[in-house]
Design goal:
Shape: globular
Strand content: 25-35%
Number of helices: 3
Number of strands: 9
Helix content: 10-25%
Amino acid sequence: MTIAQSGEAILNRQTQTVITFDQALVQLSDNMIATMTAANGVGIAAPQVFSDLSIFIMHSRPNERYPNAPETSATVVINPQIIACSEEMELGMEGCLSIAGRRVEVLRHKTVNVQYQNIHGDVIQQQLTDFVARIFQHEFDHLQGITLLERIHMANQSPSADQIVTSQGFIPNDSQHFKVLADE
């Protein structure tokens, strides 16, 4: 599947609720997994493959783009909701298959309680933390029509010092930590 790139209208649209859980949805999810894997991604959302359905894939695993990622199985997430999130935020680098060759430092909730449906329509509730919570929030943004380039300019990217923890163990004290950085 072709991956939509920054500037394409589909990336800025909200998705539609999945109502029909059928073979076409299974085929879409299989194709999304293959596309994400081929691109060394850890997640991919339907708008990134030109679909307006509310579905994304999470598959954390070490790869060329994320060598320290924890290992999880591929998860098909349909009609997701974030039910609750921690006040504690964490600053971390993110890439995006739709913004090739760029990395962005983004502030995300360290823990999120989520609800979604699996490929069979069953409702799943989970508490996600750290990198996997980051993937969920990133892909959830895509379903809302928000890319990393929009996320870094949102008000919640300037938290109070007592909310922020970084993977490097320090608290940034200037806005330079929220700019778009070249991929190294």
